[in-house]
Amino acid sequence: MSKISHFKPKVKLSGNEKYYYVQNVVKQNQLHTICESGKCPNKSECWGRGTATFMILGEICTRSCKFCAVKHGKPQLPNREEIEALANTIKLMQLKHAVITSVTRDDLPDGGADFWYQTIKRIKEVNSAITIETLIPDFKGNIASLDRVIEAHPDIISHNVETVEALSRTIRVQADYRRSLDVLRHIAASGMKTKSGIMIGLGETLEQIKQTMSDIKDTGCTILTIGQYLQPSIENAIVAQYHQPEYFAELRIIGLEVGFSIVESAAEVRSSYRAEQHI
Ligand code: SF4
Q: What pLDDT, in 10s, does the model give residues 16-46?
């Protein structure tokens, strides 16, 4: 990995300029983002606001969820230089709130938990006032791995349930709906602010969505995001329905009635969308 790029803007950048600034800094520091790897529809808006969701532990996932555009296959060994590059890039971007996610590394004994710990610690060392949200994989439900991330004290830990139980086996092939609920329950029980997210438009019913909301709330999770699934490529699951804004508004009300303190519900919502507002 090349030397950290130290280009720092002298003037107030416009949205467009911020977008290209983020693009340059990410590229020059050879970092990955879920914005790019996941083909996120909000990339131009978020980068235009000078923020991004960084993806650690490489860009190849050991799983192949049917909704996800991230490359899957045999990943390379974790690159420890990524930790320093990320901590310095966040400082360079003058981020007040950083969202970090990762591919799932079922190939590593701890699922990459220690790499997560070192990353969070180093970001906090280099960026003393920063708040951090970590969107973590399920670590196959490994409690020691979950505790390693909790030990690093990010400000919010999120883990996405992604879809309703009935669709989970087909959409999240290597994941498990009940295991994801157990992961959320363990995080919430540690006192951490806990967040989860689902996508709709994969063929689920309103009753199934309501049941999923209750299941997630029962874990102690307090923040929920609900967005419209969009097909990133023809290899991915097809969209069963495009839902109207009224439907998202109705789901937000149901979510607040179920007891979530924050419910972000709109077609463009993704788990890290406007995440700084959840702190
Ligand atoms: S675990 Fe699934 S959603 Fe996450 S990066 Fe891998 S394929 Fe995508």
A: 788 889 999 999 999 999 999 998 888 888 8
Name the closest-CA residue to atom 5, ligand 1: 103
Residue 6's pLDDT is 45
Distance 223 CA to ligand 1 centre (A): 21
| Protein residues whose CB sits closer than 6 Å to any atom of ligand 1 | 61, 63-65, 68, 70, 72, 103-104, 137
Between CA 161 and CA 168, with CA 164 as vertex, the angle to 5 degrees is: 75
Domain boundaries, the chain: 17-278
Strands 32-33 and 53-56 come out as antiparallel
CA quadruple 200, 206, 212, 214: dihedral sign: positive
Res 11 pLDDT > 90: no
pTM for this model (two decimals): 0.93
Residue-wise pLDDT for 190-199, tens only, equals 999 999 999 9
Q: 17-278 adopts what CATH topology?
A: TIM Barrel (3.20.20)
Angle between helices 206-217 and 245-258 (to 10 degrees): 40
Q: How far is the CA of 205 from the centre of ligand 1 (A)?
A: 23
